[in-house]
Amino acid sequence: GAGVSQSPSNKVTEKGKDVELRCDPISGHTALYWYRQSLGQGLEFLIYFQGNSAPDKSGLPSDRFSAERTGGSVSTLTIQRTQQEDSAVYLCASSQSTDTQYFGPGTRLTVL
Amino acid sequence: KQEVTQIPAALSVPEGENLVLNCSFTDSAIYNLQWFRQDPGKGLTSLLLIQSSQREQTSGRLNASLDKSSGRSTLYIAASQPGDSATYLCAVNSGNTPLVFGKGTRLSVIA
Are B94 and B27 in contact (CB under 8 A)? Predict the structure, then answer.
């Protein structure tokens, strides 16, 4: 079947604008993760959804970041009032519980 | 707090050579360990997943080992090819938690 998809693949925005990034996980996967990969940095965990449980938001860097997952499937990561340090590749992954995580191609965000 | 370290940070080898990439982690209480490949500007491709009860996994020219008690894993690539050039990432899973990643080893295989 189809893998994890993300949109847009690239996003250029001006400082202070809000952006929304979308993730479509593999059908049937109960867990969904958002990670961020900044230039020269490793992958940084942002937020984690597991089934109907409350999300683990412990990795969100500030209150400008939020995410939701509708109907246990599609997820949207929203960044409000973007800053230049938000520029990074945002990766989404899905899995069945503790099984292999499958990653999407990512969204490259550039904040000018 | 789990920390994952990968050595070396970068590696350049001639085509045909066998090579080993190293990964170490500080907390041995893991469910599994996963090796990924990342090509420039691309997402992550899962290569091998080793459950905590396993010692190794093989896929084609790749072999990954796990020594959970000592907090170490290695990825062995046999008969390297220029197409193997990429960044290789190691990540550990401690249960229903996000993966903790190392910073990767950037591999260049020279023809």
Answer: yes
**What is the structure's pLDDT at A18?**
98
Name beta bridge partners: B60.
Answer: none
Nearest to B49 among A43, A97, A100 (CB): A100
B/e letters for B73-106, b = 16+ CB within 10 Å, e = fewer, are bbbebeebeeebbbbbbbbbbbeebbbbbbbbbb
Q: Which of B32, B43, B104 sits opposite A98 (nearest CB)?
A: B32
Run of H or E including B49: strand B44-51
Mean pLDDT, chain B, rounded, equals 94
Bridge-partner residues for B6, per DSSP? B23
Q: What is the pLDDT of residue B69?
A: 93
Residue B47: closest C-alpha in chain A = A100
Position A101 confidence tier, pLDDT thresholds 50, 70, 90: confident
d(CA A80, CA B1): 29
C-alpha neighbours within 13 Å on the C-beta side of residue B59: 10
What band does A98 get if pLDDT is binned at 50, 70 and 90?
low
